[in-house]
Structure formats: structure tokens, C-alpha cells
Batch of 3 targets.
Target 1
Amino acid sequence: MRRLVLSQKSIRYLLAGGVFLVAIGGWLLGDYLWMKWQKKGLKELRMEALAQREQLSVLQDQTKNLQLLLTGWKGIQQGVQASLPSQNRSSFNGHLAIKELERGLASLRSELERLIASVPVSMPIKGRITSGVGTRLSPWTGKPEFHSGLDLPNPVGTPVYAPADGLVESVSVSNGNGQMVVLNHGQGITTQYLHLSKANVKKGDRVHKGQQIAESGNTGKTTSPHLHYEVRVNGIPIDPRANLLKQGSPSS
């Protein structure tokens, strides 16, 4: 047998070396987690940049259309001006042209406000989302299925608000969906509200953003009380959380 004797100085060196190795290991782990977090952040930034490019493209198209309308209006204005006697042209260029432009801008502003108010950019009810848009395991069969909306658990009778201006397209009841309301917001956009306990509107009603349209419930084929909320564009279900929603609270 051999006896190993360590001095206090050697022990201090060993402890210092151990602390150094632990510190290096912690630094490497932290660096790895930081890089992983940055990678995730870059992916989210790329997705956001893509969405912004798409929005920019839409705005550019709208700008081109407005420029074409403005060019057409100027052509009409010049035609009318050329038809006037020379002594009346100055008044046309001044007061009349300004009034016409003011009316055109007011009309454009009103139309833009109407279009903006009809886009569902808020949630119709409070609550955490337990199931989103996409493939999930069916609670009935256990097999993969496509879920076309957002599920928001709430007690029966919780108010449901219109997330945007629209027209009540239908109010109906079915075995699967239970009590159901569909709003048409124009521009190919519709929203659907399923498993309601009560509908506060009827087909053909005009509703405004923030107006109560129903109460959540547990009707139809459900596992618990909740609101199933869908947003569709030209009949295709979309996930409004991706680019559409600006706030997580209901419109009230």
C-alpha cells in the first residue's frame, strides 16, 4: 500500500481547479443556450420580416391603384378645365378644385375607416387558447385531424363580442357545432362562433366592433364549456395569431 499525502496548498489548487472546470462548464452551457435562443429569435424575426414584406407588397399595390385613380382624376379635371371659357378657368383651378379634392379625400378616408373597422384584429372573448389552428389528436378518436379554429375555455354564459364590424350571415344549430353564429366582414373575411349557449343576434343584423353577439356555452360535440372561434379568408381557415391579432383581449 502507498500512502498519498496532500498538503493544504495542493488541496487548494485542486479545489481551485475544480471550481474553474465547473465555471468553464457553466459558461459553455450558457453559451450554448444563448446561441439556441438567438437561433429561435432569428427564425421569428425572419417570419415577421416575411409577413411585413407581404403587407408592404399589398400596400404598394394599393398605392399604385391610388396613383392611377389620381392620374385619372387629373385627366378629367384638365378636360373640364379645357371646356370652360378662359375667364372662368382661374376660379375652377382654385376654389372648385380644392372643394373637389376635399370631397375626394373625405370619401377615401371614410372608406378606409370602414375597411379597417371590418377586419377582425382582436379576440371575441377572454381566455387562454387550449387548441389552435392546425393538426392535432382528436379528443374522440385519438387520431390526427385538422382543427380549423381556436378553442377558448370559458364558463357557460360568458359574453362573446364582435371583433369587427360585419353582417350576421347565419344563426344556426347543429349536432356537432351546437349553437353557431357566422359574421361576414366583407373582403372575403368571415368569422365563426361555435358551441354557444345563446345568440343575441339574428340573420341579417348589422353588428359593430365590440357589440355582444352571443354567450359561450357547451352545446354540440364538446368535452367542456368553451368557445370555438374561426377566422376564414375566402373560405380558408387561417390562424389569426400569426399576423392578424393586435391584442389578446375581447373587443369590449
Target 2
Amino acid sequence: MKALVTGVAGFIGSTLAERLLANGYEVVGIDCFTPYYDRSLKIRNLSNLLGAKHFLFHDSDLSLCAIDPILDGVEVVFHQSGQPGVRSSWGNDFKDYLRHNVAVTQRLLESCRRREGTVVVEASSSSVYGIASRYPTVETDSTNPISPYGVTKLAAEHLCTLYGREFGLLTASLRYFTVFGPRQRPDMAMTRLIRAAILGEEFPLYGSGEQQRDFTFVEDIVEANLRVADWLRTSRRGGQVFNVGNNNPVALNEVVRTVEDLVGRRVKLRKLPRQEGDPMQTGADSNLLRRTVGWTALTATREGLNSQVSWLKGVLSQD
């Protein structure tokens, strides 16, 4: 089977592509290396993929390039690309979020709907809920994003649902809850925290530290993508939305203590005000995904952190 992974040089995309190759897929990857973080880190993410026998890479921008030739022979699309970051989505940079999260998704869906039987699994976000009406949050709860980033992720999700309903395109949107693990982006809290602990640097702690997140390990995210893709192919039921979370929210202060324990060093905290668009809590009810495809998160937060600490120590030793 042939799969396309968009955003393949990213944290989740590269991990997913490696798993697909290991599972016998032929993989086409595409990435345009947006300047959100250093290109060299993305090239490092691709190190196990470039040169692999059944991997083809396109350095192209999906908002501009011809998509149909890239989709030649592709049966499953894992749409992982997008402009990340809640805090940077305010102000003039919002145009980048519209382009990479909304316009790219629409262009991709337009190409896919002309190819009968194509499956599209799209990476959405728990940011679509904003300050949720209850915790744990279920897929039918109201969506009220409190950041421009969340608005664009919800728009992309609506497009996938719409193309599923109107054209029979086999789509599913996965609402990821705070993904962590090896290769996590350098701007994300756990990478910054672990780096600060290893190097003795300051870590900016926004708010009280009591804000809770439903941290979900990257390999569990990958497994959810694979199971949902298989389910779409057999059920032929497009336009679906699923939460993908660990179902076990943890306070950031507890994460700080765990990292200190794993690294063996206290973290220097710099207390800062809570950021706009940053909810106090996220928590997934992933029972729909469990009932539908048999998925459940298998990696505890401490176990995943230990893996991420080992990875980052290796990276820092090479720099």
C-alpha cells in the first residue's frame, strides 16, 4: 500500500513515516520546511527516511505545488502538516495559519475527492475545544477555540467533515491532546523543560504551573493514525472525528518534578503570567476511538518523559 505523509519532516510526521515503512508501506513524504523552527532539526528528523528504499521525498509547498502528481498511486493520506503554535498565531502571523492550516487542507481534499477510495486521516487538535464545557471532553461537546490557531484547526476539521459528507471522501480528524516524545518541537514545553534541566538553563513557567494537560506519547498517536486509516478503508464511513488522548491529565508542576527526578537536577523556574489562548485544563475522553478501533494510550507520562530525556541527551551530545 502507498501512503502520503504531509509534514513528514516534523515531529509526528517523521515518526509516522518510519512506522509505515516498517509496516511494509511505500511512503511518499512532503514538507516545505516553514521557518517556524530550525530547518536542521527537520533534516535530522528525516535521517532514517532519506535514502530508504520505499521512501520518496518532495520538498514542496502544498499551498502552491501541483498535488495530483504527488497523489499518484496513493491510497492513504496522513495529513500531518500545518502551522503550529498557539501563542504565535495572534497578530500578523495569522495569515500563515490560514495558508498552511486551512488553504492547504482544502487544496489537498479537492485533489483527493477526484480519486475514488482515497482515505484521509487529518491531524486536528484539542485546541478546538478552548475552555471546554466539561472534563474529560467528548467529541460532541461544544468547540470554542480561544486562539487563532485553534480557529484554523477547527476550520480544517470542518472541511474534512464537509468533504466526507458531500463527496463521500473517507476522512477522519484526530484531535490530538498535547503530544510529546522524541523529536518534539523545540518550542514545546517538554522539550524546553528537559533542555533546561540538562543544561542548567531557566525554564519559563507561564501561570501557576497547576494547569493540566492530557499528555499523549507520539507512538500512541502514530498507532491511532494507523488504526483509523484501516477502519476507514473497511467501514467506508467518512467525516469522522476522534479524540486522541491519554485520558490522564497531569499538572505541569508534576511534570517539572518528574523531569528533575529523571535528569537528576533541579530546574531554574522563571515565573511569568498566563498566556492568552492557554486553557487551564485539557482532558480527553477517548472512548469513541477505543470502541471504534480498539485504541487506547499505552504509554504513561513518566515512561514517555524518560524516552524524551534520553533522546534529547543524545541530540545535545551531538551539537
Target 3
Amino acid sequence: MSQHYLYESDEDSPTRLPSLEVFWMSAEEIAGFDWIDGDGELMGPGWYWWTCLPGCLPDSDPFGPYDSEDAALLDAREGLEDLEDDGT
């Protein structure tokens, strides 16, 4: 698993921790967790992300699958500019 900052601006802060993980899951690993998508189907192999502080259990369900680690990270950060512009 690779840890990333949800907000890229946090990367240079000495008081911020990475707040999301991006990871690969095989079909066998997913079957062991019984991850089901919104349509009631078993999720497929690929790259996933979830919010999670280092050393802690995830704060969200997994999102994915994506074709690459970069695509998963981009999806995690999608729309954050709008939230920052609103001051929320």
C-alpha cells in the first residue's frame, strides 16, 4: 500500500500525516473480503483507494477498481479544488 496526502498542499507540512492509501487487490484477495459494489456484484481486481491515517483502520469503504495507481489517486483527489474554493 502506498500512502498519499489527500490534499497535495499538506505534503510540505511538518504537522500533517498522509490521509489516504492506494493499493492493488487481486480477485482472490477481494473474494476473501467479500467486497460488494453498489450493484451487489463482487468487486473486481485492480487499484483501490480509501481514506486512512498511518497505522489505523480505514475510515472509508474502498473505491475502485481503477486501471492504475495514478488513476485511483486522481479519483481520490477529484473535486477537492471545489471544496477548497468554498472554504469547506
